[in-house]
Automatic annotation (TrEMBL):
Residues 101-234 form the Fe2OG dioxygenase domain. Residues 256-277 are annotated as: Disordered. Belongs to the iron/ascorbate-dependent oxidoreductase family. It holds the Pfam family PhyH. The keyword Iron applies. One of its GO terms (molecular function) is dioxygenase activity. InterPro entries: Oxoglu/Fe-dep_dioxygenase_dom, Phytyl_CoA_dOase-like. The keyword Mitochondrion does not apply. It comes from Cohnella hongkongensis. Keywords: Dioxygenase, Iron, Metal-binding, Oxidoreductase. This is Phytanoyl-CoA dioxygenase family protein.
Length: 277
């Protein structure tokens, strides 16, 4: 299915990272990078992504009738399979090379993309670790989180608990009020440093590792907080035996047809970047 025929710019050019940036990511499990897309590139993609999210938004209840997860965002996944233009974004070499460079791996496959639009009045995103959802045998996973509109200080971007990417499972709780309090208490009790990058410009991005604990504040403004994310894994990642229902769901949705022990390489997981040498 293709929802549109626009041809937004190709995102091929390199975004060079310094040794300091690579070291910071590896130490903390998160980093903020400025202008990963230029203002004109962001201007081209924002309306296209917004339109597809508007068409595919599945929420049919007002905010007040949703649970904490439902209040946190409009969530639409695998947008790249619905639109040729978004395919260009999600499979962009520039983003994938940043992901490979930060993780220090030879190449990366797409795990999936998802839009996370926090509505005006939308709730906070509880503390969680993304990787509890993913039936993968590797720690080399990373999410690019990119606002398509200005994120004011008032809305705020994500808060990361530095260094938690090395800890594996802190808890198996899915995103919920319970995960928020349990993981919040864990972070406080251990005195783990928390970093919030505050206001962000459209086209800036944070990258965080699959195990890094993170949360985000609610949206007290009148404006939709439009964020697009792309999740990558090392190109040699394999699927593990599902350990939970969320693993089973993820296997079906993001790794269709893949069997435990096999490469995580379904048609939904193309190699998006691989070094030549
Ligand atoms: O956008 C948010 O509020 C949370 C996003 C998130 O948890 C993620 O990208 O892993
Ligand atoms: Fe997350």
């Amino acid at each position: 299915m293709s929802i549109d025929n626009h041809e937004p710019p190709e995102l091929i050019s390199d975004y060079p990272l310094s040794d300091t940036q690579l070291a910071l990511y590896r130490q903390d499990g998160h980093i903020r990078l400025k202008q990963v897309m230029t203002p004109s590139e962001t201007d081209a993609y924002e309306p296209i992504i917004s339109e597809v999210v508007r068409k595919l938004n599945h929420h049919d209840k007002p905010l007040s009738q949703r649970d904490t997860y439902g209040k946190a965002f409009i969530q639409v996944g695998n947008l790249w399979t619905k639109s040729e233009a978004i395919r260009r974004f999600t499979l962009a070499r520039r983003f994938a090379k940043i992901a490979a460079d930060l993780m220090g791996v030879r190449g990366v496959r797409l795990y999936h993309d998802q839009a996370l639009f926090k509505e005006p009045g939308g709730g906070h995103t509880p503390w969680h670790q993304d990787q509890i959802y993913w039936p993968l045998d590797t720690d080399q996973t990373i999410t690019m989180w990119m606002p398509l509109v200005p994120i004011s200080e008032e809305i705020g971007s994500m808060t990361f608990a530095s260094g938690t990417h090395t800890k594996g499972y802190v808890s198996r709780l899915v995103i919920s009020d319970e995960s928020h309090s349990t993981l919040g208490q864990y972070i406080e009790a251990k005195g783990i440093p928390q970093v919030n990058y505050g206001a962000m410009a459209p086209g800036d991005a944070t990258f965080h590792a699959g195990w890094t604990l993170h949360s985000a504040p609610g949206n007290p403004t009148e404006h939709m907080r439009k964020v697009m994310t792309v999740i990558y894994m090392a190109d040699d990642a394999k699927v593990i035996e599902p350990q939970s229902n969320v693993h089973r769901n993820a296997l079906e949705l993001s790794l269709p047809g893949c069997k435990p022990g096999e490469p995580a390489a379904s048609p939904l997981n193309p190699v998006v970047y691989r070094r030549e040498d």
